[in-house]
């Protein structure tokens, strides 16, 4: 058996973050009967949990119910890499194109959001295993070296806390023969967290503040109830509320206005067994604990955990299935995990013999503008914030803030930004959606193999700033 296949042989299909029986809370009972409330939140991921907390902080007496179709922290919020970034609009280039003249303000709001997020962890005693390690990108081809050099010079000119590494220095930080250079940005509170522990800590916090949570409670339908209320139907009962926040992200939503704003893109990850002392010395990564990604279109992202495992995801395994398929049959795709394993050992050949203990997958809500999409309907009674496109660990807290402000919970001047007001282009219907995304994915992979050189299809998409849809 080939080494990369042998490494996967004994792994189990389960998110590493979910596999923590010592801290994983009991699943709460589902809704049973009809209820009423002031604010109903649909979705028990980051957006829904942060929305409940911020609404309670603004109005402590608010009567809030949160429903989740499976368990709190399932979905993208418990299946991501735990990379915590202050980026709200998926990079400066995308921000400048989508929201001209608002880049500085959006960046400022991102830093503020990160400061407040970390402050909330401290205030409520949430042990999310937060590490302020910043963001590190590595170059694996010459074109990438030039891009990162330009980024370094730009960030340094703006006064950011940034460090440049040539090939020797980068390999001194993390020993990989594939590294040609690297850049570390450590100018705010960006870093890593255990995403499930973050969800579960938020769950415990809002329960203490009086929020009612019903797990195992999917939303079936939503309709107006008279001129002032909304009616959400669930299999076990009906909830009537003054306001509803849709925090469903990539999962199918009964409201078409929400549903056509995102598509579910599948991402695959794995985690190694804890590295022993000899293995740690072979790569040296444990001394700096960089949160890493390679500078590429189809990039890998990888990090250390508290118990010295490496989580490894992304790359060319990221994909979209026809007709927004989220069936479990897509989840445990062995070929994609085998590809990830092969790419891992290309990056760290000196770790040959190490085993993967966990493999898992999940869907990312991707919008056509590659960042959060807010909206409001029914005369301000229903709002949503969806489509974080892979940067939701931090941005979801800001999305939650936008959502509750759109519903009238102490609205601020952020609602005047084009970032919030600008209409988003909906995704094309099938089969055009699948054709377009698949062509783009293949073109991005080809460009990565060709030293970053973009072909005609990507150049065409670049004209409309639509070149990221992997």
Report what the structure shows.
By secondary structure, the protein is an alpha/beta fold. The protein has three domains: 3-17 and 129-194 and 263-366, D-Amino Acid Oxidase, subunit A, domain 2 (D-Amino Acid Oxidase, Chain A, domain 2), CATH 3.30.9; 35-92 and 95-119 and 195-262 and 369-421, 3-Layer(bba) Sandwich (FAD/NAD(P)-binding domain), CATH 3.50.50; 432-463. Helix content is 32%, strand content 21%. It has 14 helices and 19 strands. The protein has a nine-stranded mixed β-sheet with strand order 1-17-13-16-15-14-5-7-6, with helices on both faces. Strands 2, 3, 9, 10, 11, 12, 18 and 19 form an eight-stranded mixed β-sheet that branches. Helix 2 packs parallel to helix 7 and helix 2 (46-58) packs across helix 11 (392-406). The longest helix has 21 residues, at 103-123. The two termini are 31 Å apart.
